[in-house]
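INFO batch 0412 | record 1 of 1 | parsing
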Amino acid sequence: MGKTEKIDEVAREISTEIMYQIRSVKTEEVNDALAVLLAPDGFSGGLGSCEVKAKVKAFRDIALKEKYDLSRHIVVIHDDKIVFSCLVVPNEGRTAFVYSSVPNPADPQLDKYAVEALRQLCRLTISSNNNLLEALLDTEDTVRKKIFLHCDFKKLTDLIYLSRVSSIPVQQPNINKDVSWLNYDQKNHNLFKNVICQTYHDSLDCPELENLRDMEDVVQSHKAAGAFDPRWWKLMSHNGEPCGVLLLSLLPDSNSMELVYMGLTPAVRGKGLGQLLLHEATECSRQSGVSCLMLAVDCRNHFARKLYEQFDFTEFLRRTVLLYTSPTK
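INFO prediction complete | emitting tokens
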């Protein structure tokens, strides 16, 4: 390569670097950044469509209600336009959800800037005392999955989302067990926390999460799912020994209830107590007056999936879970 050609190549590289910029979003750019983030593909000419504008407004309404900090946005600028956007939404329990737009496949150079933007966002979030970042993607979303994996996210599993109509009656399981129930309150907080911890041992539902977080953080993140009400948090005892938990939460915006977590301690598994836990969950959703009961289950947990089928739960969605953990973990 001659001297002139080398100069031309360096000039092109410098020009490219100038054309792309990674930085935090400016206040006046938040709506544009959200439009890129929420558009189906993130780069088409439909960013100003009524549909995208409605999504931006709905997201901002939720952000205002939940007190999201929309400045936690990293964007890629190209030719004075936002071409990539990623956002973090912190949650209780030192966790956070990470969202990103879809890079334009017609711009092959954008991928590396999207990866670097996402890396910067993750580093900032981890340094802000969040030790577990999570991304939920459509199972067929290979473009965004590739970017997250390049940023040291790891695939956890695919979650299957199930629901059932609350008004459909469920027959009491024909299981003769000495079972009692205790509702949550602050006085028995440590008891609930300890039993939840025990139920995590050898669980088939996302077993990789065990020991990733302090159990107090786990409880706080469960509380943050929906509208927490202690009436719908129940501890099961068998023969006087605490052995299971049922954590339910109301979702008023969708007139539904979520089964946030259900688990048994290892010593009592395989004795039919899971049926009693799930029957109690269906009764709670019926008594609450919501239209349906929803939950998510690890696709690998075939025992739980079979139990949910017996209680008339049907699948309505699948999502791939990607995790980014603190380097100290």
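INFO post-check: The two ends are 48 Å apart (CA to CA).
INFO record closed
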